[in-house]
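README, section 4: Worked example with a bound small molecule

Sections 1 through 3 covered apo chains. Here we extend the same pipeline to holo records, where the ligand is supplied as SMILES alongside the sequence. The molecule in this example is glutathione. Nothing else about the input changes; the structure line simply encodes the ligand pose together with the chain.
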Amino acid sequence: MITTIPTIYGVKQSPFVRKVRVALIQKNLEFNLITIMPGDSRKTFRSISPFGKIPGFRHGSVKLCDSTVICNYLENLYPTPSIFPKDSVLLSKAQWFEEFADDLMAKYLTNILMYQCFLKPAFRNIPPNKEVVSETLLEKVPPLFQYLEKKFFKINF
Ligand SMILES: N[C@@H](CCC(=O)N[C@@H](CS)C(=O)NCC(=O)O)C(=O)O
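The generated complex, written as C-alpha cells:
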C-alpha cells in the first residue's frame, strides 16, 4: 500500500481535473493539487504526462495521466466506497456516460466554446471566431443536452 498523499497536476477549471478531484473526494482521500497549465513543458510534468495534457497524477512512484485511467487506478486501489456500479450492465452505462462527457461534451463545450470564448481572448488576445461559436451553439450542443435530458430528466423542451 502506498502511504504518500496523491498529487494532481493541473488546474481546477479543467473538467478532467475536476473528475479526478471528485473521485478522490468521494473516496475520502486527501490529495495535493499542483497548478500546471495544459501544455506545460517542464520535464518533471512531462515525465508524468508526456503530451502535456492535464490531469497528471503522481502517487509515490506511480505516475499516471488521463482522467479515466486515474479514476480506474483509484477505484482498484481503494474499492470502498466505490464510485462505479457493481452490476455489469449499470457499469457499462456509467462508462458510456463517462465517455460521452469526455469525448463529445468536452469536444464542443471545452475545446471549442471555452477556448473560443474565454481562453483565446484572455490568453492570446484574439477575439472568438463568431461563426464557429454560433455553429457550435446552434447545431452541435443542443443534441447533446437533448440526449441527456431524455436520458435523465424526461423533459421535452
Ligand atoms: N482524455 C484526457 C483528456 C485531458 C485533456 O484534454 N485535458 C485538456 C485540458 S481540459 C488538456 O490538457 N489540453 C491540452 C492539450 O490537449 O494539449 C483525460 O481524460 O484526462
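What to look for in the output: The chain is about 55% helix and 10% strand. The chain has a mean pLDDT of 95.

Section 5 describes how to batch many such records.
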